[in-house]
Design goal:
Two copies of one chain form a homodimer. Chain A contains 16 helices and twelve strands. By secondary structure, the first copy, chain A, is of the alpha/beta class. Chain A folds into two domains: about 220 residues, Glucose-6-phosphate isomerase like protein, domain 1 (Rossmann fold, 3-Layer(aba) Sandwich); about 170 residues, Rossmann fold (3-Layer(aba) Sandwich), CATH 3.40.50. The first copy, chain A, has a five-stranded mixed sheet, sandwiched between helices. In chain A, β2, α4 and β3 form a beta-alpha-beta unit. The longest helix of chain A has 22 residues. The model of chain A has no long low-confidence stretch (mean pLDDT about 95). Chains A and B meet through α5, α6, α12, β10 and α13 of A and α5, α6, α12, β10 and α13 of B.
Chain lengths: ~425, ~425
């Protein structure tokens, strides 16, 4: 159950009403675009085959290494952080394989992972939607040469997640009969967390992917609703857009939950790549975009809050509040304790955590800094599925508001071309 | 050895020259302020006593848990990430204790740490400059009640780092003879990484703190230089300030080094809290500030670069380039490989990593997006010491440029008061 609290958005009600009239036409446009992120969660067959795969390999691996970058990596990182033990990989009696996502090509990182895995007990999940991402392919060649040298069967140590037909990875899968899953053609990398890209690694480390889908479906119902009251993704987008017009160019996502710290990283890509665009739908240069900033409550009260309260008034802060954070833990004050800390008497970490969020919210509001709160019961599979769909849906609406294509990324092509050119020049 | 490359800052030379004339007077002001961050590195006695302490406890602990938040935590997190193995806590044959920094009060986090530590073999380092930070004190009371229940000697399982005289933590240290170190009065929390706050945990996990200091001293010499050519901290501040006047309100710190990913978090606090201010030195409301954004190369090319290239032109991007990243690792292309990936032939991860940085830089520049590069040989104690002092020094100059107090944080007081009020109301 997700609830919105928008009382501190500092938007005039009339403004919000006047913008609400766009819901129906935007929704029609979105449906016409035939983007798969909201349809893919109906794919029962794939979910079944993921569950079969992870059942089949249960207990066989000590480590899973995901070779992926950007949208192929961030959802998985978020799923692990949100739904597993906060120190999962350091637990002695881990029931599930230890998962690591290698989302960089720094040689220091590649060397480091080799120090902690046992190749014989490691499964590599290679994820690239296009099947051509050079960073991920380079990693694949590297680890494949290692398993080959150790005479390990690639069919048992690799699984690919890539395009159904195109790309080098699909070719290799076909030729060498390496197990593989598909990213549907009409689901972009940054929208792919609820496809095998996120679901396969999640399932392999014991996350209940059916419940993730249940949550996502609940939110999809809201996303497709023509009622402004019900359509939370529309509400979120409408607030972000309206405030952007008033100079709030930065969106801070600040969950009060250690488990959700990586959700903000996932959202950073979604918002930055989808809405940061030079051209509008008519080809006019507009250079729009919202700059995403990740923050964490209460931690970043001691790092970023000074700026949010007193610096330039250019931010919308989105809090995520969880009603239940772990067990109830008392703060055991010593007897005869100092009067300065008397306020901590008879209280709990849970209460302190909650009260600090409220205080932060009140002060921001008093300083005329817009903020909204997304409230969830607790961090679990279902609420995370809801959050994924909430944010993905809001991006679709933001694309409409800004009149841009939210699904491409033309601004990163040139550096890819340059990279190829520079490396090729070295060869010839 | 740190080098600057400012050719892509897109600042006119005349502009930079005209601003250079302020160096001498700003430097005089800074010296008058008597801030300790650049003097504290001469404190040989403290360094010696830290080394003695860690020598004394060598081999005695399996885990070190740092109870701290904000400036008391971020430097330590950065030191560990930058200078230890990237999967240090998952290595089987760890020579040093496993270090964890508990910089949040989420009950889920506090519960989680208990699942991986053995109290009998754990040292708690409690860090609060003021000695009154409620989050850290609450954590201390919690873990202290646990060790008391287990009849463990607090003098052997706790060490405090706090104000020399004031505050509850200092009182407890005096009363119970708990070992303690001092944060000099004139060193603010966010400037304290080169005091016991950062140095003690670093030394306990085997980091050479003398070399950190050596690096910091090298950069201090530049920081105190009256030559604009030599004074890198001044150059950095001058660029940030001049570009801010041209609408670049966001500073992105983007190291191309997995080891430096947490340096950007440390810098986020330093920049946000120091420069995000409502009032200038004359008490006039100015609401200045630079919003820090953390990014990582090449990872965030696949997440943030689209926005940086095509979105609003409101950012300065600071790259950190390291000439040596781990070992040389070849990319072993399969025979007869696809022509699409031919450019990866006869190359290394090191080369690809470097070339992608150059390509990113060139495209940003072509899009008229200012960027500068800080180049270091490799990530080690000395270069990290240099980087800490570079950024701290640049903040001192930014304070002068913006004509604000870079060392206070008045904007977070009210939420602290409100928190106390709300919790006290519950009691009465």
């Amino acid at each position: 159950m997700i609830k919105f609290d928008m009382k501190n958005s500092l938007l005039e009600k009339e403004k919000f009403k006047s913008i609400s009239k766009f819901l129906k036409s935007y929704l029609e446009n979105i449906k016409k675009q035939n983007q798969g992120f909201h349809a893919v969660i109906d794919d029962q067959k794939t979910i079944k085959s993921i569950e079969n795969f992870s059942q089949k390999f249960k207990g066989k691996f000590s480590h899973i290494v995901v070779l992926a970058i950007g949208g192929s990596a961030l959802g998985t990182i978020c799923l692990q952080q949100s739904l597993k033990h906060l120190y999962e990989n350091e637990l002695k009696s881990g029931k599930f394989p230890k998962l690591h996502v290698l989302d960089n090509i720094d040689p220091a990182l590649i060397q480091a992972i080799e120090d902690i895995i046992d190749y014989k007990k490691t499964l590599f999940i290679v994820v690239t939607k296009s099947g051509t991402t050079p960073e991920t392919l380079a990693q694949y060649f590297y680890f494949r040469s290692k398993t080959d040298a150790k005479k390990l069967d690639p069919k048992k140590h690799f699984v690919f997640i890539t395009d159904p037909k195109k790309g080098l990875l699909r070719e290799i899968a076909n030729k060498e009969k390496i197990p593989s899953f598909e990213v549907p053609e009409n689901v972009g990398g940054r929208f792919s967390v609820l496809t095998p890209v996120g679901l396969l690694p999640a399932s392999l480390i014991g996350i209940n992917i059916k419940k993730l889908i249940t949550g996502a479906k609940k939110m999809r119902q809201k996303f497709l609703s023509k009622s402004t009251e019900e359509n939370l993704p529309f509400q979120l987008a409408a607030i972000q857009y309206s405030l952007n017009k008033k100079g709030k160019t930065i969106t801070v996502l600040m969950p009060y939950s250690q488990k959700l710290i990586r959700l903000a990283d996932w959202y950073r890509q979604l918002l930055a790549e989808s809405i940061g665009k030079k051209l509008d739908n008519q080809g006019k240069a507009v250079n729009v975009g919202l700059t995403p900033v990740n923050a964490l409550g209460v931690t970043d009260q001691h790092s970023q809050l000074q700026l949010y309260n007193e610096g330039p008034n250019d931010k919308l802060i989105i809090f995520i509040e969880t009603l239940k954070n772990g067990p109830t833990l008392k703060i055991p004050l010593p007897k005869n304790s100092d009067s300065d800390i008397n306020f901590l008497k008879n209280t709990t970490f849970n209460k302190l955590f909650q009260v600090e969020k409220i205080a932060t919210e009140q002060v921001l509001t008093a300083n005329n800094r817009p903020n909204i709160t997304i409230q969830i019961d607790q961090v679990n599979e279902e609420s995370l599925g809801e959050l994924f769909m909430l944010f993905e849906g809001s991006i679709a609406f933001l694309g409409e508001f800004f009149n841009i294509n939210a699904y491409d990324q033309p601004g990163v092509e040139l550096s890819k071309v340059l990279t190829k050119k520079m490396l090729s020049a070295k060869i010839n």
